[in-house]
Amino acid sequence: MGKRLEAEPEFRARLTVDAGQRVLTGAGAFFARNPSLVGHAKRAAGEGPGTLRYYWRGADRRLYRVTVESHGTERGPVTGLEARRCAAPWGLTQREHEVLTCVAVGMTNPETAARVGCGTRTVATHVENVLAKLGAPTRAAAAALAMAEEALLAPFAEPDGMEITAVGRVTRETSGGQVRRAGAPREQARRPIRLGAIYPLDGPRRFDALAMRRGAAIAVDELNARGGVAGRRIDHLAIEVSGDTDGDLLRAVDYLRSHDVDAITLGNVSPRHHLGAITLAAEYRAPLLHSMVTPSIAEHVHDNPGVLGQTFQVCATETAYLSGFIRTLDLLAESGQWRPGNRRVVAVMREDGYDPVQANGLAELAAAGGWELAAMVPVPDTGVPWPAVVAAVQAGDPAAVLVCTYVEDELRLFLRELRKSGGRSLVHTVWTPTIPGFEERMEGLAEGLLWSTVIGTYGDPVSARFMERYRRAHGDEPGSGSAAIHYDMIHMLAGAWATVGRPWDFGAVVRSLREGVHRGAAGPYYFGGRGQRALAYPDDTFDASLAHAHLVHQVQDGKSRVISPVELARHRFRPLPATRAW
């Protein structure tokens, strides 16, 4: 039999420096071989109360975790030092640990090469290895993590202009050649959390994007007024882009990556471009939150979890609008609130979100309720030829029409054309009426319109408090969608950052977001849906504490009123007068 390997017993060495600067130790041989540790303890005793932790490569070439703690007594300051044998943090090699220490104190690669005695290219390789082992996307993130975990390698750093202080860090030599020492203990300034956000503030989505930005700003202001997250201020890096230009969007993502942001939130941009931006952001590995509903996004995340696993969709996909449309027709017809002239329906869908499977799914949903899908008409996101589309709709003589467009101007043109044609179909649209001021800008065209959203405010106390803050801040209405959603995004991220304690630890923040449940101004968020999206009630679950209710509204007397689901409805459906035509 081979020789049995015994586990090495734990080794600890302790000393105390008393008020009279006497050194008391029971491990004299160890400290005789490592006299610098005794010097650290004496220096700490002279600098006042505080605690310092670092790693030490001993004379025996082994690694030790050192804790130096000073406190005052009636007779004067007393300092204790403990050196405990340990393994390297994050599985670093000795050279990688040395390189991380240089990075943490602000050295460039050439300076690090000169310090550790190797080539600049070798240092670059070590830096890459360090970032991978720490799970840090950038040098700044690795430095912040090393400082937060007090993981610097002290004896390596001590000679030639590096110094250990008793109150919390290794400091770098100044240009004058003198070592900067810490004075009385003080709270060290903490690196702020950098929140990157992209908003399409021109084009057809400008009103929606303005509400997003304002909602997020209210959340950031609230958190900073309370001292930030674990003492870290949040810096809101907001980038304005053209929502319909791919280049601007990708440049915005690159800008945020270059500024070491800790998370990205993305406003609603054209479906022609958003997947490219999300994919580029995924390479950076920071968590990304968005509220776009194109099914392809969630499917890409589901199919590529290793690449896109940091992407979170805070609502259901627009597929839920199809089931919600049929469910609403069933409710209105079965309750007697609406008496359709026939059982035919037509759907006008965005080309970017359309596929044959979706059409078949809607046809099956309709048939199950006794309805017939007479036609599904795909249209572009903007520049829709509405006269031809309305003619195609009218040819089917439908009792109800579902119009899926997220561009307010396009919806206005559709309603105007439908009214001109004398159409009397019940019209159901999605999302767009959540935008602040929608009903006023429609100038009466939207009266009687049905609309739904898979995420929005309920009028409950949580929503009401946010909406009142918005009114006070901006003298304007927030709408029932994007402002609250982006307000909630910031608070969700803040909760994860507070739980993890290290905003730059992207993997841990992503896990916290994935596992938690957040109750916000727009309802509950739980990312248990396919493709790491939030759940919808009742499509995904009947547990309303984990999902957003699919809210159906009707514009009545110029105001949007909730008419479904019944447990949240405060109004009943109001049929259009028989003489009224769209």
Short description, anyone?
The chain has 582 residues and is of the alpha/beta class. The protein has 20 helices and 23 strands. A 7-stranded mixed beta sheet has the order 14-13-15-16-17-22-23, sandwiched between helices. Strands 2-1-5-4-3 form a 5-stranded antiparallel beta sheet. A 5-stranded parallel beta sheet has the order 9-8-10-11-12, with helices on both faces.
- How many helices in DSSP terms? 20
CATH class of the largest domain: Mainly Alpha
Number of strands: 23
Helix content: 25-40%
* CATH-derived topology of the largest domain: Arc Repressor Mutant, subunit A
* Regions with little confidence, pLDDT below 50 for 5+ residues: 1-8, 157-189
Whole-angstrom Rg:
31 Å
Oligomeric composition of the shown chains: single chain
Write up what this structure looks like:
This protein is of the alpha/beta class and 582 residues long. The protein folds into 3 domains: 12-172, Winged helix-like DNA-binding domain superfamily/Winged helix DNA-binding domain (Arc Repressor Mutant, subunit A); 193-314 and 485-517, Rossmann fold; 319-453 and 550-564, Rossmann fold. It contains 20 helices and 23 strands. The strands form 6 sheets. A 7-stranded mixed sheet has the order 14-13-15-16-17-22-23, with helices on both faces. Strands 2-1-5-4-3 form a 5-stranded antiparallel sheet. Helix 15 crosses helix 16 and helix 19 (482-500) packs across helix 20. It is elongated and about 100 Å long.
For the structure shown, list the relevant keywords:
Arc Repressor Mutant, subunit A; Rossmann fold; 582 residues; single chain
